[in-house]
Amino acid sequence: MRGLTLDGVEMITFRDDLPEPTIEADTDVIVRVSRAGLCGSDLHPYLGREPVRFGVIPGHEAVGSVAAAGGEVERFAVGQRVIVPFTTSCGTCDACVRGLSARCERGELFGYGDPTNASRPALQGGQAELVRVPLADGTLIGVPDGLSDSAALLLADNFPTGWYAVKQAGARPDRPVAVVGLGSVGLNSVAAALMVGAGPVLAVDPVADRRGRAAQLGAHVADPSAAEIVAGEIMNIGFPSVVDATGALPGQALAFRLLQAGGILSIIAVPTTDRFAFTPVDAYDKNATIVAGRAPVRSVLGRFDIDRITLPTDVIVTHPQVPIEHGPDMYRRFAAREEGIVKVLFSFA
Ligand SMILES: [Zn+2]
Ligand SMILES: [Zn+2]
Fold this sequence. Notes:
Oligomer: single chain
Bound molecules: zinc ion
Number of strands: 15
Largest sheet: 7 strands, mixed
């Protein structure tokens, strides 16, 4: 089958000879992928900032239809459209029951592979024609008929992640929120904050195109160099809720500076450093609450009426249908933060 492999730092290869996955357990499903997302967090292993098993098929966001189902799968049948969230989850362990599907005791992340344990096979990712989904009943989410592939793909990670980030930050109606970093997760955080009625929302990014998209959603916007001035005009005592969606220390430092005393800093970007951008003394002096962690997408979506969400798909999905053959070039351009590229979806037609 056709798909991508990550073969080394900044080495994405398109291949048309990848082995097709097969049902390995009765609880597996094989999904024929119609769209696979390219995510900001795919850049961490690509750029060598996060360990991964080289040779793996990357990608942890996919939408498609069930191509085959194991004998114990009860909720999904061949042909059904499904969202593949970025981790598998059993639905019954303590973490799953507590609504933390991303920390399922049996959970695995698509498209990485543990580089420290070569004996454990990597769970291949979604940037290929077919993907094997273990624990399918507890992992997959059905797609309502009317939902486009682009919108469904945002539900596989970025929108529920943004929603989780702002809820973790304490967002609620009429409460100001600041979001630092306007990649897809940051823009989805802005959208989610406005959706829950929070406001005003301040959105910060150095890329003008991304600020323009946040403004379209209804946010106040600022370049990082002017963020504290603009923030002071909106909330001269700082923000009670701040989301760090940058994954970099300067962005996190700015996010912390925007926080008011007693505020909540929600770190949603995957960290790639061994320390915070602020000290314990800084946190103490602001009576700050720090929350962090991967969004439990399956649990979050379980609380939504997916039929009734209106996602800002057109504002965020800049490249809805990039042939998978262009994967190596798209990774390079996305990593270079080329103007006008926010969310890229690979297609397999
Ligand atoms: Zn993602
Ligand atoms: Zn579980």
